Amino acid sequence: MLSFALIGCGRIADRHAELLSSGAIEGAQLRAVCDLNIEKARKIGERCSVPFFTDMHEMMQSENVDCVSVLTESGSHAANVLEIAHYGKHIVVEKPMALTLDDADAMIAACDANNCRLFVVKQNRFNVPVQKLREAQEAGRFGKMVLGTIRVRWCRTQEYYDRDSWRGTWAQDGGVLTNQASHHIDLLEWMMGDVESVFAKSMTALVDIETEDTAVVILKFKNGALGVIEATTATRPKDLEGSISILGSTGTVEIGGFAVNEIRHWNFLHEEKQDKDVLEKYSVNPPNVYGFGHKAYYEHVVSCIENNDAALVDGFEGRKSLELICAIYESVETGKEVYLRFAPKLCKLGRE
Ligand SMILES: NC(=O)c1ccc[n+]([C@@H]2O[C@H](COP(=O)([O-])OP(=O)(O)OC[C@H]3O[C@@H](n4cnc5c(N)ncnc54)[C@H](O)[C@@H]3O)[C@@H](O)[C@H]2O)c1
C-alpha cells in the first residue's frame, strides 16, 4: 500500500483527497495533508481522518509517506518540488508542472538526483475516448496526418479570477493557455507529434487580469501537418466545450464534451469491427470540466511505482507542453512565428 501526502488543500485537493481516502485507488491511501491555511488543511484532514499540518517539512518529518502530491498554485510547484525532493519520496505534481523551462529542468534534475519519480497530472490522457483515439493514431489509422484542432471554450468570470490572488497572474498562473487549455495542448501534441513552429495572437477580452483569457494559435508539426488552438475562458454564459479533432488522409475523429470525454465523430476509411461500439460504449460527458481522469491517473501512478514502469507523463513529457506554451507566448510577444526548440526571451510566463 502506497501512502500519499497532499501539499495544498485548495479546490483540486478535494478531488485528490476523495480518491486517495475512499479506497477508490487500489494500493493507495491518504496519510496526511498540509496547507499554509490551517482551516483548509483541517477541513480535508478531518473529512479524511488523517493528520493535517501547516508546514510541509513538519509533515514530512512526522509522517512516513511514500508519495507526495503537490497541489499548490502553479507558480509554486517548482519551489515545492525542490523542497520535497530531498526527502527521496515520489512526487505527483498538478499541471502545469512549472511556469518556466528552467524550473522544469531543475525539478527533473532534483528528482533524478534523489532517486524519486516525478509524475505530472494530465488526467485527460486517461479519458477512455482519448485512449481509443491514441490507439487509432498509434495503429496508423489516420494515414497522413493533416490537421489537429483543439477548442477550449470555457466560462471563467471575474469572480473566478478574484477568488484567489494568484489567478490570472504571469508569476503564478498564466492565462487560459497555461491553466485551462494546458490539458488540451498536451493532448494535441500527444496525437500530432512534435511541433515545428507556432504563430499566436491573444487578448484579454472580458475580465481584468494580467494574462490572456482568449488565444488563437496556428501550429506546424514536424510531420508536415497543421494545427489550430482556440482557447478562451470568455465563453458566456456557461462552459461550452473542451474538444480535440484529428484529421488524417484516412480518418477523422472528434472528441468533445466539457472535458474531452464524448466521441462526436469516429470515421475511418477502413472500418474495423469494434468501430461501431466506440461511439456508444466509450462516451460519457462528466458533470464538470475536471472530468473523470484523476482516478485513472492515480491508478497509473501506483502501477508505475509498483512495477517500475515508465510514466506516461513524467517530468520530460510535462516539460514538452510547457515548452510549447512558452513558445506560444513568445510568438504573442514578438508577433513572429517561433520555431521549437527555443529559449524564451520575451515570454512573460513565470516572471514578475
Ligand atoms: N488537473 C486539473 O484538472 C486541475 C484542475 C484545477 C487545478 N489544477 C491545478 O492545481 C493547482 C492548484 O489549483 P487550485 O485551484 O486547487 O488552487 P487553490 O488556490 O484552490 O489551492 C492551492 C492551495 O495551496 C496552498 N499552498 C500554497 N503554498 C503552500 C505551501 N507551501 N504549503 C502548503 N500549502 C500551500 C494554498 O494555501 C491553497 O490553499 C494549480 O496548479 C492548478 O493549475 C489542476
What labels would you give this structure?
single chain, alpha/beta, eight-stranded mixed β-sheet, six-stranded parallel β-sheet, 11 helices, 23% strand, binds nicotinamide-adenine-dinucleotide
Write a structural description.
This protein is an alpha/beta fold. Helix content is 34%, strand content 23%. The protein has 11 helices and 14 strands. The chain has helices at residues 11-21, 38-48, 56-62, 77-85, 101-113, 128-138, 158-163, 182-192, 275-281, 293-307, 315-334; strands at residues 2-7, 28-34, 52-53, 67-70, 90-93, 118-120, 145-153, 195-203, 214-221, 226-232, 241-248, 251-256, 262-268, 338-339. An 8-stranded mixed β-sheet has the order 13-12-11-7-10-9-8-14. The longest helix has 20 residues, at 315-334. It is globular and about 60 Å long. Nicotinamide-adenine-dinucleotide binds at residues 7-13, 34-37, 40, 56, 71-74, 76, 80, 94-95, 121, 123, 164, 179, 290.
Mean pLDDT: 95
Q: Please indicate the percent range of residues in DSSP E strands (runs of 2 or more).
A: 15-25%
Structural class: alpha/beta
What hetero molecules are bound to the protein chains? nicotinamide-adenine-dinucleotide
Report low-confidence residues grouped into runs of 5 or more: none
Q: Any idea what the radius of gyration is?
A: 20 Å
Q: What form results from the Cα inertia axes?
A: globular
Helix content: 25-40%
